[in-house]
Structures are given as structure tokens and as C-alpha cells.
Write a structure and sequence with these properties.
By secondary structure, the protein is an alpha+beta fold. Helices cover 35% and strands 23% of the residues. The N terminus is likely disordered.
Length: 576
């Protein structure tokens, strides 16, 4: 490899010449988010009051009704399970969120594995893994688990009957009903159908309290499943179809992004929409146009979030995911739309040059759900199938301290000021104060791309506005950036570039350069000016469970009279 010419200075990205395509994303109206927040708080408060009724002495008797004699329809399982995971479950090892418990203790009321672990258990998504094993022992174990759940949860319980968990369980029980019940005695079949009907009756009451986002989409899916599968449920279908159409228009934005602004949520939402379409087609019910349009918009946006290795970018609670599963989802979507270059409604930009790919977060963190990260203006970069600059990823284990740390601004490839988050994250996981104005302007000319970004997340607490400029040349070998702060006061800042664990980094003696070596032995050089570069330890949670050691480039400095400007560049080194 050859180094850059001696004495070469770090210049600003060149200005575009000739004709350029310009796109602008103004700051979203904060009133929309305030409305969503107020509505969410109102639903939560109402649900809290409703829980007093649910736990009452007479509520259980209100769920009684005519027991279904059979199912009218068994929905198709669209997603393959893992026989390896299923084999562990059949052997009695229940492993979720990187924590295992024996089957004998799994459904115990004294379970101390944490609410996230219990949500995985009581949601029964793992039935598809047991089914993938394909043995009679797997069938018997699945039936035993369902029976144990019914015995221990016949009455309403706060967690196991929580609307989102209940919705997941209903969908899985109905989908795998034949697998569970084949060969069972009449008593099991009767108990299974009766308990399913009781849960459906409760969900019809509780679904109205579901917050906007994936949980509400899941409850709509469960109710349409129940209405099409259980006798007498067809009368609910017309109203549910109208509700699903409205939900699609509200949750899938015009550019195809899901309202939670998360690649992981995008994948889950598209799976839910495909499942709803599938069960409607199996029932010879006309698919609402809004549902089909939502699928057609959402599939290209899922492609938008993918790196060259097939995995997802790590924004807002996302991990890489399984590339093969993403392929299956896109195939099932039957939408060939190509990924957009700009997603202004969702708040992301994507640009490719040769083999280089950059995805940047330039939107206001979503108040929907509890997965938003404080990563405004962060970006990820990959070359071919090799990730270079990344965010740290989302933690999905039982330690809430780790979860909050991974959502912090410092866990993202962007600027941190005075060790503060650009978006407030409350102890309960909800979003606090966040930027009210995030802007982006994109220009393209002769294959080169410029991106000008800004956010005011530091304005209220510190009186500062952060700006970031990124330039990528047409060959994808020269990526330049400029981070600035404008405002008042004296503040310390750190610009972080988290590196993928496969990237080997070494600090050059001049203190302003870092050499990077990728798995394919190609080399890149990070240079900076007006800041001090260092290499520090970091972690990477690509799968959400196992942390991997990695490194981060940190450019540190301080404002003078409320202003600072740091220029940096990532340049590919030519081979000898």
C-alpha cells in the first residue's frame, strides 16, 4: 500500500460543479410528536385503570362463552424455524436473550429471568423452531408447554396477558394448532380451543389500549387471525379491515419507512403485513389496497437499510439480523422496488459509490415505541461486504444499564458534547427532550455526493447547534467530513467513529492519522485536523446478545467562543 502524498492538507469537500440534484428535508413539526406522546400517555393511563378491572374477582367469569368446536382455518406459517434452536427446546433447554432455564422452571410464577425473557417465553414464537425439528417428541413437548401455560395462566396476569405478548401467542397458537394438537386427546383439544377463545375475548377489549407502532400492528394481526380462524368471528372482519387500512397509512410513511425509524422494526412490520395479507388470501377475503400499498412501499425501504453483507444497519434498536431471513421476507413481499437513495419522511439518507455505501441518520428520534437511540447525525459505512464505520448496536439482554448505555449518543458514530446525549433517554426507556429541527440537504453531480446535516438537540441544554457535512467521491475511495458546533460557551466534544471488530486500526505517530486494515487486506487512512485523534476500546453488539471487542477512533477538542470545526477524511490507500 502507498500512503497519501507528504504534506497533503485536509481540505473541505469540493463544491459541486455543473448541474446538481438538490433535495431538502426540513425539520419535522414537533407538534406531531407531541400529539403522539399525549395520545400514548392517555392510552397508558386508561390501560392502568382497566387493569384494576382485569385483576378483579369477577373478570375471569366475564371471559366465558360458547366453546369453539373446531377452527375454520389454520394460517400458513410463512417463516422457517431453526431446527438447532428447536432441538434445545425439545431437550428442555429454554434459551432466550442469552439466558437459559430448564423447561421445568420456565413457566414458574416465581421466574426471575426478567420481563424481556418472560415475554419471549409467553409469546410462543419458538413454536416454529420446535416444529422445524419435525419429530413426535417435538410435538409432545410443544403440547406439554401449551398445557403448562394454560394451567398456570388461566386467569389474567399482568405480563403473560399483556396485549402484545397475548397477540403474539394467539398468532402462534393458531398457526401451529395442527402441529400442537395432532394425536392429542379430546380433553386437550377442548381446553386449547376454550382458552384460545377466552384470550381472544380479552384481546378485543385490551387492544384499544395498545400504543401506536409495532405493538398495535401485532394486535391487529392477532385479531384478524382470530376472526378468520374461530367460528363466529367473520362478523368482526369488515371493521378490522378498515382499522388495518388506517394503520397501514399511519405506520408506513410515504417513503416506505416504518414510523419507529428502526431497521429492525421495518423487518418486523413487513413480516406482520405479509402475514395479514397471507391469511386474508387464504380466506378468500379481498386484500385492502392500503395494505398492498404498504407492503410495496415497505419492501424497498428494508433493502435501503441493508449493508453489502446482507445484514441491517444498526440504528434505533437494530442489530444485523439474519441475512437469509431478510431474503425470505423480501421474497414473500413480492415487491421488486429498488431501495431509495433518500428517505426524507423517515429521516435517512443512503448513497453508494462503486463498492462504498453510507447510511446516515438525519431525522428526529421517534417517540413511537421505546427503541429510539440518541444517534442523530450518526452514519455507518461499508465497502462491499465489509463494514468499516458502525454504531455499537442494541442490547437485548436482561441488564437495563447496558440497554441504556447502548442507546446513548456515545455508542454512535457521531459527535458528543460534554458527555451528554443529543436526545434525552428516561430511566423507563422512553424518550425525553430531543431535537425539534433536523435538516438535511443532498446534492449530486458527476457521481459525487454531498450531504449537509444539522440538528438542535444540544441547543436547549447547551446553546449549541451541531452541523455535519459528508462528501463521497464517485469512485467511493474518498470520504470527507466536517463537524461543526455553533453557539456560545466553552464545551468539550468528542467525535466518534466506531469500527467493526473485523477492522484492525493503528494510530500514526503524528496523532492526526489512523491506519485501517480490512479483512480483504485493503487499507484506509483516517485523517483529521483541528482535533486530537486517539484509539479507544469499544464494543459491538451485532447480534444483540454477545458483545465483541472493537475499537473506536475518537477526535477530541473544545469549543472556542462557542464554536468549533473539525475536518476529517477516510481515504482508501492504493495497493502497491
Amino acid at each position: 500500500m502507498t500512503d497519501a502524498p507528504e504534506g497533503q492538507t485536509l481540505e473541505k469537500p469540493p463544491k459541486p460543479r455543473g448541474r446538481a440534484r438538490v433535495g431538502k428535508q426540513g425539520g419535522r413539526k414537533i407538534s406531531v410528536f407531541r400529539h403522539q406522546s399525549v395520545l400514548s400517555v392517555a392510552r397508558e393511563a386508561t390501560y392502568w385503570v382497566a387493569r384494576l378491572w382485569f385483576r378483579g374477582v369477577f373478570y375471569n367469569s366475564s371471559l366465558r362463552g360458547r366453546r369453539p368446536q373446531s377452527l375454520r382455518l389454520i394460517p400458513e406459517e410463512n417463516w422457517p424455524g431453526s431446527s438447532d434452536r428447536g432441538a434445545g427446546l425439545v431437550d428442555g433447554r429454554f434459551r432466550f436473550l442469552n439466558h437459559s432455564l430448564p423447561a421445568a422452571n420456565a413457566f414458574s410464577s416465581a421466574l426471575e429471568a426478567g420481563p424481556g425473557w418472560q415475554a419471549e417465553l409467553h409469546g410462543f414464537d419458538w413454536l416454529r423452531d420446535m416444529r422445524a425439528v419435525g419429530t413426535e417428541a417435538a410435538r409432545v413437548q410443544a403440547r406439554t408447554c401449551v398445557s403448562e401455560w394454560i394451567d398456570g395462566n388461566a386467569k389474567w396476569r399482568l405480563l403473560s396477558w399483556r396485549p402484545d405478548i397475548l397477540s403474539s401467542r394467539l398468532c402462534n397458537w393458531l398457526t401451529h394448532a395442527e402441529f400442537i394438537s395432532a394425536g392429542a386427546d379430546e380433553n386437550f383439544a377442548a381446553t386449547f380451543l376454550e382458552n384460545t377463545a377466552r384470550q381472544v375475548k380479552h384481546l378485543r377489549r385490551a387492544a384499544r389500549f395498545m400504543p401506536n407502532g409495532l405493538e398495535r400492528m401485532l394486535s391487529a394481526k392477532a385479531l384478524i387471525y382470530a376472526s378468520l380462524c374461530l367460528p363466529g368471528g367473520i362478523k368482526y372482519v369488515p371493521r378490522l379491515l378498515k382499522s388495518i387500512a388506517k394503520m397501514c397509512d399511519r405506520q408506513i410513511l410515504q417513503d416506505g419507512g416504518h414510523i419507529e425509524r428502526s431497521p429492525k422494526a421495518q423487518l418486523i412490520a413487513l413480516r406482520h403485513l405479509i402475514d395479514i395479507r397471507s391469511v386474508l388470501l387464504a380466506s378468500n377475503v379481498e386484500v385492502p389496497e392500503a395494505l398492498q400499498r404498504a407492503i410495496d412501499r415497505a419492501a424497498p425501504m428494508l433493502r435501503f437499510y441493508r449493508h453489502g453483507d446482507g445484514g441491517l444497519a444498526l440504528f434505533n434498536g437494530s442489530n444485523e439480523g439474519e441475512a437469509w431471513l431478510i431474503d425470505v421476507v423480501l421474497t414473500k413481499a413480492e415487491s421488486r422496488g429498488k431501495p431509495l437513495t433518500s428517505a426524507p419522511h423517515t429521516g435517512f439518507e443512503r448513497f453508494t459509490a462503486n463498492r462504498a455505501l453510507i447510511i446516515a441518520d438525519c431525522g428526529i428520534p421517534s417517540s413511537v415505541g421505546k427503541g429510539a437511540h440518541a444517534g442523530t447525525l450518526s452514519f455507518e459505512m461499508s465497502v462491499g461486504k465489509q463494514r468499516i464505520v458502525v454504531n455499537c448496536g442494541a442490547y437485548s439482554g436482561r441488564d437495563e444499564t447496558w440497554r441504556l448505555a447502548q442507546r446513548a449518543t456515545a455508542a454512535h458514530s457521531t459527535m458528543t458534547v460534554d458527555d451528554r446525549n443529543s436526545t434525552g433517554i428516561n430511566a423507563d426507556g422512553s424518550i425525553g427532550d430531543r431535537p425539534t429541527n433536523v435538516t438535511s440537504e443532498r446534492l449530486e453531480a458527476d457521481g459525487n455526493t454531498w450531504l449537509d446535516l444539522s440538528h438542535d438537540g444540544y441547543f436547549m441544554p447547551l446553546g449549541l447547534v451541531q452541523r455535519r457535512r459528508i462528501y463521497v467521491n464517485s469512485s467511493g475511495t474518498d470520504v470527507r467530513g466536517e463537524d461543526t458546533l455553533e453557539g456560545s460557551g466553552e464545551h468539550k466534544f468528542a467525535i466518534r467513529f466506531h469500527l467493526h471488530p473485523s477492522v484492525k486500526a493503528s494510530l500514526v505517530k503524528d496523532g492526526a492519522s489512523v491506519l485501517l486494515r480490512l479483512p480483504d487486506k485493503s487499507g484506509w487512512r483516517m485523517r483529521c485536523s483541528d482535533g486530537i485523534a486517539s484509539l479507544q476500546e469499544s464494543i459491538y453488539l451485532g447480534d444483540g446478545h454477545e458483545s465483541r471487542r472493537s475499537e473506536q477512533i475518537v477526535i477530541a477538542g473544545a469549543t472556542q467562543n462557542g464554536a468549533a470545526r473539525v475536518k476529517w477524511a477516510l481515504t482508501r490507500l492504493s495497493d502497491k
